[in-house]
Design brief:
With 209 residues, the chain is of the alpha+beta class. It folds into two domains: 98 residues, Rossmann fold, CATH 3.40.50; 92 residues, no CATH class. Helices cover 36% and strands 15% of the residues. It contains eight helices and six strands, in the order αααβαβαββαααββ. The longest helix is centred in the middle third of the chain and has 18 residues. The termini are far apart. Bound molecules: iron/sulfur cluster. The site of iron/sulfur cluster (SF4) has 13 residues, from loops.
């Protein structure tokens, strides 16, 4: 937990560092904080390890935290606890998260804005509810069709052919074209524009909708 002090080049006084570490641990409910100072990672549960990771991020007093699948490895019962803690911290410290996940149902539950990515590029982006309910990109459509009931109604499954290409050999034109059921000649020749189709709803496609 001292690493943020080194990488962020803040606070060199060891006594103050310890105070800040204890305070951060307390804010993520690692209690009593002193009892965790001498523990090794293998002596902590999965949930406690995630709390340590969140506390470490808080030490730098961030306005934004990038959380990459922070609960995917945790037991279901612990997931809810960690998500609750993240929301509580967001409100208490007025910060924001970029939350990276493969779980669209969870994204819908926690996100205010959503960006659907494919091969390192945003395919569709905007207000979370709008994107997940009134999706316009074929990839978003395919993802939603195989996600168990985000909005209650049954949808026909859209199974994409082939696999995601390697990130070092991006296809010509639209990078989704080798797998797209709507592919047209222009998709292979020209990269599509990223257009705002309505307020706060962007899509990267020659034929959205
Ligand atoms: S640009 Fe063409 S290939 Fe790409 S997503 Fe749109 S329809 Fe599919």
């Amino acid at each position: 937990m001292s690493e943020p002090f080194i990488t962020g080049k803040i606070e060199s006084n060891p006594v103050k560092r310890k105070e800040m570490i204890l305070k951060a641990m307390e804010s993520v409910k690692l209690i009593p904080p002193e009892s965790f100072l001498t523990k090794f990672p293998h002596q902590l549960s999965g949930g406690q390890r995630q709390r340590v990771a969140i506390a470490s991020a808080l030490i730098l007093n961030p306005r934004l935290i990038i959380a990459d699948e922070p609960v995917s490895m945790l037991d279901m019962s612990v997931r809810a606890e960690i998500l609750d803690l993240m929301f509580e911290i967001r409100d208490r410290y007025s910060l924001a998260y970029i939350y990276i996940t493969h779980d669209l149902a969870l994204a819908r539950f926690i996100g205010t804005k959503i960006a659907v990515m494919y091969l390192g590029k945003i395919m569709e982006m905007g207000d979370a509810r709008k994107v997940l309910k009134e999706y316009l990109h074929p990839y978003t459509r395919a993802l939603i069709s195989v996600t168990p009931r985000i909005f209650g109604s049954k949808r026909e499954k859209l199974i994409l052919k082939g696999e995601i290409q390697s990130g070092i050999s991006i296809p010509r034109g639209c990078r989704f074209q080798p797998r797209c059921p709507k592919r047209n000649e222009i998709c292979v020749l020209e990269e599509p524009p990223f257009i705002e189709v309505e307020a706060d709803h962007f899509v990267y496609c020659h034929f959205p909708g």
